[in-house]
Specification:
Elements (H helix, E strand, L loop, with lengths): L4 H5 L6 H36 L3 H29 L1 H19 L5 H29 L5 H9 L1 H19 L2 H11 L1 H11 L19 H4 L3 H5 L1 H5 L5 H31 L5 H29 L1 H21 L5 H19 L2 H7 L6 H16 L1 H13 L1 H22 L10
Helix pairs in contact: 2-3, 2-5, 2-6, 2-7, 2-8, 2-9, 2-13, 3-4, 3-5, 3-18, 3-19, 4-5, 4-8, 4-9, 5-17, 5-18, 6-14, 6-17, 7-8, 7-14, 13-18, 13-19, 13-20, 14-15, 14-16, 15-16, 15-20, 17-18, 19-20
């Protein structure tokens, strides 16, 4: 009797040990992404001082990495569909470690831009490949919280970046400390590489050359695969979700980047906070961030993707406005707001891994997730640059609030035009 996709999805017993290793391997990989990605906003003031940059150039360096991550996501997802998830993950982490280290050697704005662009390419390739692998191991009714748990590692990586920021700036001037931070960033990359060497692709998912050896009964449904993943994603059956998913990813991430990229500089320049005071605010955001990932995934599984995204994006916009646009002198109030903003930023992000993998069939899942998330990220990359440019005329805080508000309205429109995918069984 032929085994159905649903049965394969619900028969995890032989893969329990491997599933556990996959969970921790993807968790550490995403933690590394959080570590290196969040280092840059913290290091930005030192980089600006070292090279004599404007805020516009600082925003451009951020946007360049995000734009290249869009290309990396599409390429990484396509390679994962063709050659398997694990092989591509190992390649990605090697490239990530290399260009993180080289960022520390930058001698001018041009070399900084080059290394950040190449690092961004591998950063972009990380997400769709790891998300596809983890989604294929997760039970349908728990996929939201499983992917959210993996993404909670971002907060842990962010905490590592904040700790690196504190320690390096305690002993070194701004213009040198940022180099130490990026040098330290090589270490977690090597740890993630060692962990991933023991992984294997999930046997019941037909990707890569091994798919050709599958029994005839299993390969019969694979006719769309011969069309090619890109043609499949833009076929009449999937075109709508591909386009809407990409627009949703773009506006949602633009809102997130508007807050995460510029908050450290905003606190230092417009609130006049010291390094230690800025780090204190970031610590509260990190705690809220971790809680948002862990608890947000549960709500995504309980009430569905549409309603959960609606609640969390509205919460991000409302509390982001209170934090950035209505200064209050009370320390406890501002720290609680920082925690709440961190919670909502993470909670809305916690459902994306599940959503973007549930939208597509197995033979195009990595490519589809790469396009919706990372092309969306590439469009969203203009958000930090736009804010850096607008800050000169309306102030950094107001520029952030304006971008977040517009992006929130568009994000909610796009999620309600997309299908509800909660509980969908993956092939």
């Amino acid at each position: 009797m032929t085994t159905t996709p649903a049965t394969r999805q619900q028969a995890p017993a032989p893969d329990t040990s491997l599933a556990r290793r996959v969970t921790w391997a993807t968790w550490t990989g995403w933690g590394l992404d959080g570590f290196t990605n969040q280092m840059f906003p913290l290091a930005l003031s030192g980089i600006i001082a070292a090279f004599g940059l404007t805020t516009g150039q600082g925003g451009l360096a951020t946007s360049a990495a995000l734009l290249s991550s869009a290309v990396g996501g599409v390429v990484g997802g396509r390679l994962a569909d063709r050659f398997g998830r694990v092989q591509v993950l190992l390649l990605v982490i090697c490239g990530y470690a290399l260009f993180t280290g080289l960022t520390a050697t930058s001698q001018n704005f041009e070399s900084l831009l080059l290394w950040r662009t190449l690092e961004g390419f591998f950063f972009g390739a990380e997400w769709p490949v790891g998300a596809a692998l983890m989604a294929e191991y997760a039970a349908p009714e728990r996929r939201g919280r499983a992917l959210a748990w993996v993404q909670s590692a971002w907060a842990v990586g962010w905490a590592g970046a904040n700790l690196s920021y504190l320690l390096s700036h305690a002993w070194l001037p701004d213009t040198v400390a940022w180099r130490v931070m990026f040098t330290v960033g090589i270490l977690p990359a090597l740890v993630a590489l060692v962990i991933r060497r023991s992984l294997r692709d999930i046997p019941r998912t037909r990707t890569g050359p091994a798919a050709a050896d599958a029994p005839a009964a299993d390969t019969a449904p694979e006719k769309p695969h011969r069309k090619g993943a890109f043609a499949e994603l833009f076929s009449p059956a999937l075109r709508k979700v591909t386009v809407l998913g990409t627009l949703f990813g773009a506006t949602g991430l633009a809102s997130t980047y508007a807050l995460q990229t510029w908050i450290p500089l905003y606190l230092k320049d417009e609130r006049g906070l010291s390094v230690s005071s800025t780090a204190l605010y970031v610590w509260f955001m990190i705690v809220g961030n971790w809680l948002g990932y862990v608890l947000g995934g549960r709500l995504h599984d309980r009430i569905g993707r549409r309603w959960a995204f609606t609640v969390f994006y509205l919460g991000t916009a409302v509390f982001g406005f209170l934090f950035m646009a209505i200064p209050v002198d009370a320390l406890w109030y501002n720290l609680m707001l920082a925690l709440v903003v961190g919670f909502f930023i993470a909670a809305q992000a916690s459902g994306k891994g599940a959503l973007f993998t549930e939208l597509f069939p197995a033979h195009a899942r990595g490519t589809g997730a790469g396009i919706t998330y990372n092309v969306g990220r590439g469009v969203a990359a203009f958000s930090p640059a736009l804010i850096g440019w607008a800050a000169a005329s309306i102030g950094l805080g107001m520029a952030i609030v304006t971008v977040v508000t517009v992006c929130t309205v568009l994000t909610l429109l796009f999620i309600w035009l997309m299908p509800e995918t909660r509980g969908r069984v993956l092939d």
